[in-house]
Amino acid sequence: MLIRLLRSNLAPYRRQVAIVTALLLLQSVANLYLPNLNADIINNGVAKGDTDYIWRTGAVMLGLTLLLGLFAIVAVYYASETSMSVGRDVRAAVFERVQSFSAREMNRFGTASLITRNTNDVQQVQLFLQIALTILVRAPIMAIGGIVMALREDATLSWLLVVIVPLMAGVIGVLLLMAVPLFRQVQVKIDRITQVLREQITGVRVVRAFIRVGSERARFETANADLTATSLRVNRIFAVAFPALLVIMNLSTVAILWFGAGLVDRGDMPIGNLTAFLQYIMQILFAVMTAVFMVILIPRAEASAQRIAQVLDTNSSITEPLRPIAPERVRGLVAFADVTFAYPHGERPVLHGLTFEARPGRTTAIIGGTGSGKSTVVNLVTRAFDVTSGAVLVDGVDVREQALEGLWGRIGLVPQTAYLFKGTVAQNLRFGNENASDAQLWHALEVAQARDFVAAMPGQLEAPIDQGGTNVSGGQRQRLAIARAITKRPAIYLFDDCFSALDAGTDARLRMALRGETGDASVLIVAQRVSTILHADHIVVLDEGRVVGSGTHDELMRSSAEYREIVESQLGAAAA
Amino acid sequence: MMMGGAPRGGPGGRPQAGQRGGPFMGLSAPVERSKDFRGTLGKLLARLRSERAVLAVVVVLGSLSVAFSVIGPKITGNAMNVIFDGVIGKSLPAGVPKEQVIESLRARGQGQLADLLSGTNAVPGVGIDFTALAQILALAVLVYVLASLLSWAQAYLMAGVAQRTVYGLRREVEEKLARLPLRYFDSHAHGDLLSRVTNDVDNIATTLQQGLSQLLTSVLTVIGVLGMMLWISPLLALISILTIPLSFAVTIVIAGRSQKEFVAQWAETGALNGHVEQMHSGHALVQVFGRRASAIEQFNTQNERLYRASFRAQFLSGIIQPAIQFLSSLNYVGVAVIGGYRVASGAMSLGDVTAFIAYSRQFSMPLLQIASQANLLQSGLASAERVFEFLGAPEETPDRVSATAPKGISGHVEFDEVSFRYLPDKPLIEDFSLDVRPGKTVAIVGPTGAGKTTIVNLLMRFYDIDGGSIRLDGVDTRELPRDAVRRAFGMVLQDSWLFAGTIRDNIAYGKEGASLDEIVAAATAAHVDSFVRTLPEGYDAMLEEEASNISAGQRQLITIARAFLADPSVLILDEATSNVDTRTEVLIQQAMARLRHGRTSFVIAHRLSTIRNADNIVVMDGGRIVEQGDHDELLRKRGFYYDLYQSQFAESVGVDAAGRPMLPVLQPAG
Questions:
Q1: Fewest CB within 10 A of the end CB: N or C in chain B?
Q2: CA nearest neighbour of A537 among A523, A520, A558
Q3: Closest among A139, A430, A122 to A304, alpha carbons compared
Q4: Separation in Å, CA of B322 to nearest CA in chain A
Q5: Which residues neighbour B578 within 8 Å (Cβ) at sequence distance 6 or greater?
Q6: CA dist B98 → A254, B124, B132, B348 (Å)
Q7: Coil, strand or helix at B32
Q8: Global pTM?
Q9: Distance, in angstroms, between B47 CA and closest chain A CA?
Q10: What is the complex's ipTM, to 2 decimals?
Q11: pLDDT of residue A576 exceeding 50
Q12: Sign of CA dihedral A504, A509, A510, A512
């Protein structure tokens, strides 16, 4: 998964990757050449007492070192450029993909998870790439280069390499095999403890009210002991790593000295080359060791890459039609024709054979109990979900046949929980209509009963709004959201139970004003409060996803027992 | 050639944002500083007190390990000398004593060779002394093996110390949570609190695991190696002392510059995250209001900025290693060349030069490790400070167990001139008295901030009153253990708290050891059962943190089911039913009425129907009871309640002279 992700995203940066690899190659060769020069110094300079030779060769070594430094810096430059570019590209790809999602995909992943995937997970992959391009690439080059140099030096001694390198790789491999799954477990257990503690903090009242302090402690204790045991195991396994590798390296030195001595004595190898050989081995082993430790990062990066790939591989369940049909006239007529809807894995359908119309110029209200499916109605109009059977028609055309942007262009949505964006009041209001004038904004605010408090805010229309709209109260947020929809001047208004944050008085005044404002548009209100929908032109009563009554308030009071019950419960027996 | 002393160790905790892998872990991100370094360090070390025996062993093992590892190169250097001596010796005629050969070389004008020879122990004509070599190498093997064994033992033991200490710390922290008064939770941001008990504790674990013992060995290694270098050759040592600390300084400088860039990177990341969060949270809005294209455009702009900032940060921090490498190579060249010269002139042995090269490598690693470990330590101490601050917070007053809880609580609740305020200068409840007979329903109404939820806090003894007394069946609740008080009251809050677990487990929270039948019965009573059956896993369906799979109303129902299961003597409903809508509310009200029969209930609500049906209405404003009575009485008074009623209900519906809502064309049913 990781490899696949990286491969496809590295494609545009082939040049840079090639440069980095080339530079690392040169670097490694140069690094391996230095001991060679040192050998020359010993063989030709020291052993022969030729000090001039020493200085000359020293100068070459110096030059080589400077060159090395230069190579390294350039390599880091290109490596950084590549890895950060890939990060940027992947982030953009994920974001764009999520933008195309429907509510179903959003629910499947969850908002929090999507945010993490767009940011943290990409960061992991990016960092991994950076390290891979610098250290991980260097290792095999050094190893192979070192082996080549060593073989060139003396094939006889090189057999030691055949023993040492696999031994080292073996030790590391075994350790990693044991440790890596444990790393993952540690992470899971840390998450578990965090979760338990979070619940104890946010739910402290409930924990104490239900006298669960003892059982909470037990729950925590289990998680704590679990985490500690696993962490201990991981860290102890890891404790073996470095000492084991060091001892292998050092004993290699001893072995080389011993066997090398024999060769030197027989005259098969000049002594300088022995020191060079020692240094090759060290460089090779050190490079391998560093690289292998970096390999620890792979599981994390892999996990992140998988999470990213999951998003990128998901296609939205709501698709644009191949040949979109636009309705002849935009009037705002919404019709549900025998609509049945069930969530993808739900046992029972949320809506059964729902049929009703929301006509232009009228207010249609939907009322019903929890789980009766009211909010789903709104979602089906905006195509957050598609019907399981039946059809939703807007202006006579099935919504699935219409271009999404066109459909949405006609809808003004006010969801259950008001959400505002960071910016100014004006920016939020202009969200659906960038060209609205200030006068239009004020008018919308007036209708939404928000004029007064916005006028009182410092900056008025330019007053700042925090992310989510948290710097205004719930009721104010709701009213601004309503004003936002009004500014758009849509043909269809969808109010998904958005009046509940307002007190009854404001609610009433607002709906009065809306009546005047909406004019020929069709208004669909989903509500809890009977008082909100009392005066609607048409009320649809839902119970467990089915229509159990429809008509005006008076008609329903006469014909529907469920409706009467609802009215009674909210407004008291005297109202019935 | 050996590297620095002790091992790097594995992961102890979770890396934080903007992390780092690799040898320079501590250097690639900005580090927090603690405010009281010495004090916090002292407290942290005090916690290690119980492990002091093991720690002593760790220190000894570490020191011995360093000692052995530092001697190693010298021994291999000696081996090299033996070999060199043999090589030189073999090239000279046998039988002639060394001094003679030297003299003859000088006489012939081969002064340099003579110098070289005088620096060796070569015996003319004799090759490598393999016996001596074998002995030296055997010693080397012993030393290296011991060094590694000791180093491993040190890490092994330290792992135990670190984990045990952190285990205890975590437990302490969790226990503290249970002893803190509600006031603490209400006055501190939950996010910050959570961070202290999780992230900060993890950070301490990492510090203990990787920072502490390794800092010791790194420092010892540096000292030991420096000592050896100076002993072997002060001249060469000078070169090392110049180039290597120079690399240290370069690191600090570059790391400092790169920190600035990292800060910028974090800022840009935060901005991008904010944008992503908004666009995802308001996904439906972005779509329906036609803002997808604009969202993507804004993202790309911010993304580009992030790219530039992170590129700079990565590049700068990525240069550190090549820079170190460069200086280290320079050092190597210097040592090789000058050392070679010294050997040629007979002032040093080849073995010593070889050893010196090894020492140079052995010197730079620990220096870098010290730098990054120092950072780690700083960060760990900053975390420790926050954790200790938390542990030092004042706790709840302990329970007085002077009275026994009355058996079979009938539910007679009395408030007797109760006074309470959250803040000393903001009076809230003053001289509040109320007598609630068993089985009666009290509705508490009033504008926001009138003190209604406070009543709940006081009844449940989440906060203790300042004056007066609250009595349950005649017993002052302060005389009872808090658990006994809370067992008598059943609470359904406006803010439903459900934990990440199955629906069954959540409902079962109301009563320990509840059977499935009891759970289903409670669920049915709360009208949870039918919708649970629409879910694929039914009662075993997991409630997620965000619980996006069920609606707010359904969450409320589950908490109500939980309360049903708990079957308390006194019910407290804190605006619970306002999130549950019309149809279901009808059914719940019926069930609640059933439940309330014969049970005392306190209902804080603003549904007209609830209030109208209550036996007693308590109207609060500014912490005081301003009026008491039932609905009709209060309306007749035309006082505060009347005004409240008018503004909240009448406007929407229209009321007649008797205060009854006027609905358009009422017809009797049927």
A1: C
A2: A523
A3: A122
A4: 6
A5: B494, B605, B606, B607
A6: 29, 6, 19, 17
A7: coil
A8: 0.73
A9: 17
A10: 0.84
A11: no
A12: positive
